[in-house]
Amino acid sequence: MDAMMPTAAHHPPQVTLWEIFALFCKVGAIGFGGGMAIVALTERMVVQEKQWVTAEEFLHGLAFGQILGPFSLNTCTFVGYRLRGVPGGVLAAVGFLLPSFLIVSLLAWLYLRFQHLQLLKKALAGTNPVVIGLICAVVLDMGKKQVQGLSGWLLALAAFVAAALLQINVALVLAAGVIWAFGRALYRRRLS
Hints:
The protein is mainly alpha-helical and 192 residues long. It has 7 helices and no strands.
């Protein structure tokens, strides 16, 4: 059986395909600020509020999502798939994209019509610091819950430096983390 498929122990059967679609429509409709802001909203809704997946499962989905491209969409798809297999993944993706498609289509039309207004330019520029603050809040919250011990914080710092400062590809940073964790587990196993 596929390890990523839903299991009764972790996911209550009352999570319907409609609930998955509706929740990700909501995420798509109210999630502003780019990938990490959307991931933060998704994490709050599916891990903390609904408890559909564990924090660990969510982080695994986020890690997988970062390997292949638009990680907020991939993370939503992962959660839907984890809950209800392929139909859940498809509906999570469609639900997540539909509001954005409709909103962006409307906003593009409005922007093209009113782009010359200085008030609009200033309003759009004012949202940037807010988004950065939201992303920092999510990083701290997830770090407090998932990073343990000095070695965990050092690994998190090394990953940050590699990705943000040295601009090493995220897939390579994740692969290095997996190799490090695997090597550490083997080392500890030999010691015991």
